[in-house]
Write a structure and sequence with these properties.
The complex is a heterodimer of chains A (169) and B (420).
Chain A lengths: L1 E8 L6 H4 L10 H6 L9 H4 L5 E4 L11 H9 L3 E4 L4 H10 L3 E3 L1 H6 L5 E5 L4 E4 L4 E4 L5 H8 L3 H15 L1
Chain B lengths: L4 H10 L9 E5 L2 E5 L3 H10 L11 E4 L9 H16 L4 E2 L8 H7 L8 E4 L13 E4 L2 H10 L1 E5 L3 E7 L8 H12 L8 E5 L1 H4 L3 H9 L8 E3 L4 H7 L20 E6 L6 E3 L7 E3 L10 E5 H4 L2 H11 L9 E5 L3 H9 L2 H8 L2 E2 L20 E4 L15 E4 L2 H10 L10
Parallel strand pairs in B: 2-3, 2-5, 3-4, 5-6, 8-9, 8-11, 9-10, 14-15, 14-17, 15-16, 17-18
Antiparallel strand pairs in B: 1-7, 12-13
The chains are: A alpha/beta (169), B alpha/beta (420).
Chain lengths: 169, 420
């Protein structure tokens, strides 16, 4: 998969309360959540960003609560991918499970600027900063996680398992 | 080969010793649960999976606690989904208002999560049960849906950091202060993807309620979970509660740890974590004059009976500062009833506090104590992120029940020593 978009930069320790404040958690409708994505950090974010844009952040992105509403809000707002120096573990799992591509990279987060155009090749594992003309290698995901992604997320994986187990029975 | 408690639990749930740190394994799950925020998405995905039944009707918990008792129509719709799902799939552990509590206080209290278990909850503070010697991890809704279907979870085998606490605790220093201090030492991602194993003579001397508080906040250092080896106190706690047989595990003395951190607690003062990260803890002597508008005593972190006892001890015969709201929220109905029987509720109300039915409510800015722009709260909860308890320009200071009670009397962040 090729992902192309411009960068929105965020600092370290962006928590899930900032990504989607709990006052909006009385719904799980992605469209409604998307309207309030990052609202307490930048109240205009959801309006300013374009479909396919990329979030680039520092350390510990997605720390705090386990709310899957956080990656759902980002994805529904149109964020195509997140690159951070590191992710909090529950957010990492949730993003993979809902099929939102995420990558860890110290260098990309350090060296890119807001508005840079990035092109990511998820198969080759490369991140290309087209504005700065630089290419970076990304981490490759463990085999089992790649399998989850290849079947279309954990939901699809479970459906396959249910079918397989019913055949076994 | 020597193993940590977590490695032993994972071995017993995968049927193999053949894994290393960093490997991805599939582990059998003993108990899985969700709340009114996380369950609706899990229920939707469960239904889409094609599964005809849940993996085990006795081993799933559904607890409406976050925005329950229902705070508005949308929340009511979410809670209704839980109730209907529980009925349709005959899930035994659905807790209706009047019988419920904040999930992480309720499940250990009811003996549904036990030593040696693998417990997975769709809530980050699932780590609380680690105080029983349980491997308890928080996940999101899709993960929980998968577990409700398959009864197993995929995991990356985590490394463990061992914390050894020694020395005698000062008078007003509690488990809350120890964990806030620890997080301030290693940072909010200091244990990311790792297990925090709390040990040492000080931990041996801590009550169960204080142990729950410590494990509860391991996630605030990014940890996969916190855990404490079960001992006689743990077994005593479980007497008459445990709903099924269980197996206790201990770490081998020569088990491998990624790091061992020793902490002398005798020099630790009561701690206050300043906005907007739990790692910003300062000793009370360095806090200065911080005026408050609200004090919250409650939550999965500090809403247990001992927390209420210590608050009542300080509030007895006192009046809340005229410019402060004190809201006390017992974490479960049993805690509430016990507090009532001990006369603690009388003390709270006589001092001018409001006492609420169990709910997560204000902790995550849901309801029942939301902050206005510019307002400041001291709170026994677990997070002080931007906007966590209300307006994005409000502030939350995290502390123990003792400090929250003393501060409510004095109108500023204060030590119980200052209460006359």
């Amino acid at each position: 998969m090729i992902i192309k978009g411009k960068v929105w930069k965020f600092k370290d320790n962006i928590d899930t309360d900032v990504i989607i404040p709990a006052r909006y958690l009385n719904t799980s409708d992605p469209k409604e959540l998307a309207l309030h994505c990052m609202e307490d950090y930048d109240s205009e974010f959801a309006k300013k960003m374009d479909q396919g844009d990329i979030v680039v952040a520092g350390r510990n992105f997605g720390c705090g609560s386990s709310r899957e509403h956080a990656p759902i809000a980002l994805k529904a707002a149109g964020v195509s991918c997140i690159i951070a120096q590191s992710f909090a573990r529950i957010f990492f799992r949730n993003a993979i499970n809902i099929g939102l591509p995420i990558f860890e990279s110290e260098k990309v987060a350090d060296q890119c600027s807001e508005g840079d155009l990035l092109k990511i090749d998820t198969v080759k594992g490369t991140i290309n900063n087209l504005t700065k003309d630089k290419v970076y290698k990304t981490n490759l995901l463990p085999e089992f996680i790649q399998k989850i992604i290849s079947v279309g997320g954990l939901k699809e994986y479970v459906k396959e398992e249910v079918r397989r187990r019913e055949v076994d029975v | 080969m020597a193993k940590t408690i977590v490695e032993k639990i994972l071995s017993s749930h995968t049927g193999t010793d053949n894994f290393e740190i960093g490997d991805i394994i599939k582990a059998r799950v003993d108990f899985a649960f969700a709340n009114d925020i996380t369950a609706p998405i899990a229920i939707k995905y469960f239904k889409e999976s094609g599964a005809r039944q849940v993996f085990d009707k006795k081993r799933i918990g559904l607890i409406p606690d976050h925005f329950a008792p229902n705070k508005d129509i949308k929340s009511a719709e979410q809670c209704k989904l839980l109730k209907e799902f529980a009925r349709e799939y005959e899930i035994e552990n659905y807790f209706e208002i009047g019988k419920m509590g904040v999930e992480h206080a309720l499940l250990p209290e009811k003996g549904l999560v036990l030593p040696g278990d693998v417990v997975v909850g769709a809530d980050s503070h699932t780590d609380t049960s680690g105080a029983l010697g349980t491997f308890a991890i928080g996940v999101g809704s899709t993960d929980l849906a998968a577990i409700m279907v398959l009864g197993e979870v995929w995991l990356k085998v985590p490394p463990t950091i061992k914390f050894i606490y020694s020395g005698k605790l000062d008078k007003w220093v509690s488990g809350k202060d120890l964990i806030l201090y620890t997080i301030s030492q290693i940072g909010v991602d200091g244990a990311n993807y790792k297990v925090m194993e709390f040990s040492g003579e000080t931990i041996k001397g801590l009550s169960m309620d204080n142990r729950f508080t410590m494990c509860n906040m391991a996630i605030e250092a990014g940890a996969k979970t916190g855990i404490i080896e079960p001992d006689e106190l743990t077994l005593e706690y479980l007497k008459g509660r445990a709903q099924r047989p269980y197996q206790t595990y201990n770490s081998d003395p020569d088990a491998h740890y990624e790091k061992i951190i020793e902490i002398d607690v005798s020099k630790i003062e009561p701690q206050v974590a300043f906005p907007h990260l739990p790692e910003n803890a300062k000793p009370i002597s360095e806090v200065g004059n911080v005026k408050i508008d609200q004090s919250i005593i409650g939550s999965c972190t500090n809403g247990r009976i001992e927390d209420l006892r210590i608050a009542a001890q300080i509030l007895k015969g006192q009046q809340i500062h005229p410019e402060v709201r004190l809201i006390v929220i017992p974490a479960t109905q049993d805690v509430y009833l016990q507090a009532l029987r001990e006369g603690l509720i009388d003390i709270f109300i006589s001092s001018g506090a409001a006492v609420s039915t169990p709910t997560c409510g204000p902790c995550l800015g849901g309801y029942m104590g939301i902050l206005a722009k510019g307002e400041r709260a001291i709170s026994t909860t677990n997070r002080n992120f931007v906007g966590r308890m209300g307006h994005p320009e409000s502030e939350v200071y995290l502390a123990s029940p003792a400090l929250a009670a003393a501060s409510a009397i004095l109108g500023r962040i204060a030590s119980p020593e200052e209460v006359k």
